[in-house]
Design brief:
Rossmann fold; alpha/beta
Length: about 220
């Protein structure tokens, strides 16, 4: 039995990704997993690392009272692109706590807003440049701390550009659709267990495009 904790915000809890998708993928691959989450919309990793914050207190309690094998951490969607130093501080603080628990941290690196989003215009970014900034910031802190990264955002970019008929975004051009959440779950599982997800078959991924993109990241 693998005990896995997800820490993040709406990009994690949309479509019940940890339980409805990640857990089912793991079970299909033959892994016995127990999955729990501590999430709140808009929350940063800095808040999750703050013992005085409501979610930060819950994180501390969870790590004190449970032994985890893996802890997946997901930052607020804009922070790695626009405030990388704050992102780095949050990752450093959480990774220290996660390693004290004896667990392996895994960074869930997210995506740029969909092309046409007003937020991209406001920030003078494109989907490509935002995605690259998030991936670059994730790579930088991962190299510093020697942690693994599930580059979900890069997988999003690949699928959106090679198979635009697959809609990965919610109507708000920010959050994931069901397919987007499923791609996130596939990428995280693939990275966590070094598992070739293209060997699995799911109704939500009839063409195998999502599993192929997840495998590459």
């Amino acid at each position: 039995m693998y005990n896995i904790l997800f820490i993040g915000n709406s990009y994690t809890y949309f479509n019940d990704m940890p339980t409805a998708m990640f857990k089912k993928i793991a079970e299909a691959a033959g892994y016995d997993v127990n999955v729990t989450s501590i999430t709140k919309g808009g929350w940063t990793l800095g808040k999750h690392a703050d013992a005085n914050d409501e979610c930060g207190g819950a994180v501390d309690a969870a790590l004190a009272n449970n032994k985890y094998d893996y802890v997946v951490i997901q930052e607020q969607s804009l922070r790695p692109a626009v405030s990388p130093e704050l992102f780095f501080e949050g990752v450093r603080a959480l990774v220290k706590k996660i390693r004290a628990n004896g667990a392996v941290p895994l960074l869930y690196s997210t995506w740029g807003r969909k092309e046409g989003s007003a937020k991209l215009t406001e920030l003078s970014l494109t989907n490509k440049t935002m995605t690259e900034k998030i991936a670059d910031a994730s790579r930088s802190i991962a190299n510093e701390l020697d942690i693994a990264v599930a580059y979900v955002g890069l997988a999003f970019y690949d699928v959106c550009n090679t198979n635009p008929c697959i809609e990965l975004y919610n109507a708000d051009m920010s959050h994931p659709s069901e397919s987007g959440s499923f791609l996130a779950a596939l990428t995280i599982f693939s990275k966590m267990f070094d598992f070739d997800v293209t060997t699995l078959s799911f109704p939500m991924d009839e063409s195998g495009v999502l599993s192929a993109a997840a495998k590459r990241k």
